[in-house]
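Moderator note: this is an archived Q&A kept for reference. The question asked for a predicted structure of one protein chain; the sequence and the answer are reproduced below.
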Amino acid sequence: MTALVRAEILKLRTTRLVPGLLIGFLGLIVLYVLAVVSQTDVRDLELSPDAPFAAAAAAVILVLLLGVTVTAGEYRHGTITATFLVTPVRERVLAAKLIAALLLGFAFAVAGVVVNVLVGWLALKAKGADVSPLDGAVTEVLGATLLGCALWSALGASIGAVTRNQVSAIVGPVVWFLIAEPLVGHLLDEHGRYLPGAALGSIFGDGDLSRTLGVLVSVGWIAVIGAIGAVLVVRDDVS
């Protein structure tokens, strides 16, 4: 399994999309930090020291697309047939892709945290706000970033396994999370907090669930969607 995971990560290292996603992810983090610090009073920044360090939540859609690329990308480029010929047990291939997506999402998060802390600290210092990246509230949100990005990437990989079409796996989630889920969540009232986007948002502190429950619900969604994807991948007639 380790060799399969390494192979999946190596495949993505040779594509131009992943570096582009990483640059976009880090760029959005920088813009978020600068916008929050420039538009917030020093007193408010000191009262809510974690605000400038929650930037990854504004860019997680790119991490989701990273996960989609892990599973659906090979179908688009036609390399999935060779992958299944090398490893005929498709469940193992999909499991390796999900693990690779988790690791890559975590790697994106580590890079994002480093940039977030560096830019945030410099911007806050320039603003004159007495805020430390080592503050308890800040370290909590940074830790949530590491876990949340890994799960967002895994969710993207699960969705990619279901659609097995990169375009559909990108457009569908974007429409769902930005348009459909808010509407469905409103109709479901208090039960809407258990929808995937709301649950994942709770990990970053932007939801009605506790972080722990948000993680559990998110893992549940990933497991269910991933299981559906596994059934479809195994049954798919790849040529």
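Archived answer notes: The radius of gyration is 19 Å.
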